[in-house]
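Lab notebook, bench 4. We co-purified these components, and the gel suggests they stay together. Before we commit to crystallization screens, I want a quick structural picture of the whole thing.
Request: model the full complex, all chains together.
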Amino acid sequence: MTTVSDRTVGAFPEEVAPSKTTFLMDVMRATPGESRLEMCIQCGTCGGSCPSGMDMDHTPRQIFAMIRAGMKEETLKSNTPWFCVSCYYCTVRCPQEIHITDIMYSLKRMAIEADLFEEDKAAGFSQSFVGHVDNYGRSFELGLATRHYLRHQPLGLMGKAGFGLGMYRQGRLDLTPQKIDNIDQLKAIMKKANELEKAVT
Amino acid sequence: MERSARPYLDSTMAIREELGVEFEEVQDWNCCGATEYWSVSRLPAYALVGRNLALASQQIDGTNTLVAGCSACYLNLSKTDSYMRKDEQLKSSVNEALAAGGLSYDPGSLQVRHLLDIVVNDVGLDAIAEKVVKPLTGLRVAPYYGCMVVRPDLDNHYSDHEYPQEMDELLKVLGAEVVDYPLKTHCCGGHMTQISEKTAYEIIRRLLYAAEQYKADVIVTLCPMCQMNLDAFQGDVNRMFKTDFHLPVLYFTQMIGLALGHNAKELGIGKEFIDSTGALAKIGVEVPVPEKKRSRHRRDDPSLPMPKPLEKPKPQGEEEV
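Here is the predicted assembly.
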């Protein structure tokens, strides 16, 4: 591990008191493993590789500059992490081996936690999805699509009816949710996981 | 795979005996969380996947390979196993959560792999070549891997992050003409179709455009999400960009099945949104297409009681004007 300053990679988030952490440290701590975010040299490879970069408020490169400048509100309000498609192009191309995609997930979580996100459609979609998985152990496409469209694009639902019908005719769509047998086991595990998560953050 | 990617399951089950692969489904598996769960929670997302890993390691007998056909499931299982191995803190937290459900998982005890990997490496291309009875000669295919299988590839299963050759080699062995598809690992957009159609359809358009430019007859994929995005939304892409793509998207297992002599129906072909009849006719495969309903307003329907106008008898010797 190279020492860039006093704060060595992986060492400072734990050593610094919670009240004294910078936004950069918070993001790094929220990301599993070693994110290497402080190694960014602003080369722009990530922004250039991103398939959805053209529709992001800020490219990944800009977001990292913002994080390092401590611009918490602007970063968490940005639609950038929500437009990340998790293709990992940036991660494998980054010359500094920064775990960019993992950082994007962290930003999504932090944006929900701080309730600063403005990209309602994406956040809402994820939350609906999670709601189904928590209750049934499986995803439920019909419920997800209906909820999502009714909330964000009611008229769009008509346009999707053809698609839905096509899927149903091919036997590719469930009309009712499927539930796993041992849903109680899953719920117990998730309850514990949520408790542990709260204890850390 | 039981529902939205049914053809993938059907074709895999159809070819498994010939390939000599035995599958045992993990009982009572839960959703892997796709990309959504990780956007909302951290540890719970790992625990969600952890349950699958724990159940698999409990139920597994005589092997330690866990196979996933879907790229997102594969990535989530692989990522969880890998990070639990590298991060002690994560390993103990996940196991603490799993313990609440009476489960635990020892990271590294399972080998998480994608179906393509099993077919190419475990079954082997030579073994498959021997079994080919109807080579796909004359069919131009564009191998489309999508993003999650080859990236981040934490355990180095594939030849390259952006330019892998596994599926290319497989399709060559099946006798098809493999196109050098430049966007073979470009993302299909995942769930972006539900978030921002503009972004998602542009991503899909690029993939279709490249395949068309390279004169591919069929795009061959290995992920249900990719298949859906490129196939089910092709019509929408055509509408938005005023293009006229007509590229059928099939699974690699369906292609293997065809080369091994199975008929289209048992491989789930014919269930796509974009009709593959034309493309597959090139290799002499008939696709079972559901009978279209007859329109009620057919003017040339002889059963309608409409009198035909009387024909004037032509006088002899006169020329037709």
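The longest strand of chain B covers residues 140-144. Worth comparing against the SEC data before the next meeting. The CA atoms of residues 236 and 251 of chain B lie 21 Å apart.
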